[in-house]
Design brief:
Number of strands of chain B: 5
Shape of chain A: elongated
Distance between the termini of chain B: 34 Å
Number of helices of chain B: 2
Order of helices and strands of chain B: HEEEEEH
Shape of chain B: elongated
Helix content of chain B: 40-55%
Distance between the termini of chain A: 28 Å
Largest interface: A-B, 34 and 32 residues
Structural class of chain A: mainly alpha
Largest sheet of chain B: 3 strands, antiparallel
Structural class of chain B: alpha+beta
Radius of gyration of chain B: 22 Å
Strand content of chain B: 15-25%
Strand content of chain A: 5-15%
Helix content of chain A: 55-70%
Oligomer: heterodimer
Chain lengths: 113, 134
């Protein structure tokens, strides 16, 4: 595990946490019309710290505070969720491209080109 | 179910639930203004009741609990010439609120589209991850 971290830095773990956050935001979007559903999100830096220390990310799970509360007790705001999802997807892609360039760098070094 | 809910389960089930909602809206709109010979047999608008299916790590999806029938009571109209009129000459008209059903339809379509978008983005990211290092 330590060897992987030396090679790929934080990005392998970051990808894992991003994936987890994507599932959470997808859950919020799925429950956009469910009465009394409370939207949840992941505190990314806390979850990443927990993942690096090999701990459970349970304490990084937070409830979303709605900008405008609704009568049916649902706290999902689609605009908020959509932007969070887009931001998260972009960050996932960023980590992915860091990993990809790292892999190609190492591959090139190994080939001795 | 074995294993935690995947992104595809979450969005897929939500799409199924939204489709049920769209079906009930279509039924309501189709039966707007239908006439019946008794109050009991008159059409009453339907609405699905959603509930959350929780899973660990903040994952959750949605399912349809039941289809609730209710809404406004049918309106009685005195029309002795109507072929369905009872012995008092009354018929019952289904009171479907077409405007609110149309709004419901648009909202359902938007939320369905949102889930499709989530699925598409996730699919793209996963296949990119699969190609990593190639």
């Amino acid at each position: 595990m330590a060897g992987t971290d030396a090679l790929f830095g934080i990005h392998a773990k970051a990808l894992e946490v991003r994936q987890q956050r994507m599932a959470m935001i997808a859950s919020n979007i799925a429950n956009a019309a469910t009465p009394n559903y409370k939207a949840r999100d992941l505190d990314f830096s806390a979850a990443l710290n927990a993942a690096e220390e090999g701990k459970d990310a349970g304490s990084a799970l937070k409830y979303r505070v709605p900008i405008q509360s609704s009568l049916d007790g649902n706290t999902v705001e689609l605009a908020t969720e959509q932007t969070a999802f887009a931001e998260n997807a972009l960050a996932y892609r960023a980590s992915l491209s860091f990993l990809q360039s790292r892999i190609s760098t190492v591959t090139r070094a190994l080939k001795g080109e | 179910m074995a294993g935690p809910l995947s992104l595809f389960d979450i969005s897929g089930r939500a799409m199924a639930a939204q489709l049920v909602r769209l079906n009930t809206t279509a039924s309501n709109l189709a039966n707007a203004g239908t006439v019946s010979g008794s109050e009991a047999s008159a059409y009453r608008s339907m609405k699905p009741v959603f509930h959350t299916i929780m899973d660990g790590e903040g994952r959750a999806t949605v399912a349809v609990d039941k289809i609730a029938t209710g809404g406004a009571a049918p309106t009685k109209r005195h029309d002795p010439t109507h072929p369905l009129a009872d012995k008092n000459g009354d018929v019952w008209e289904a009171s479907v609120d077409s405007a609110s059903e149309l709004v419901e339809m648009i909202e359902t379509a938007r939320q369905y589209q949102n889930n499709v978008q989530v699925l598409q983005t996730a699919k793209g990211l996963i296949s990119e991850t699969l190609r990593m290092g190639q």
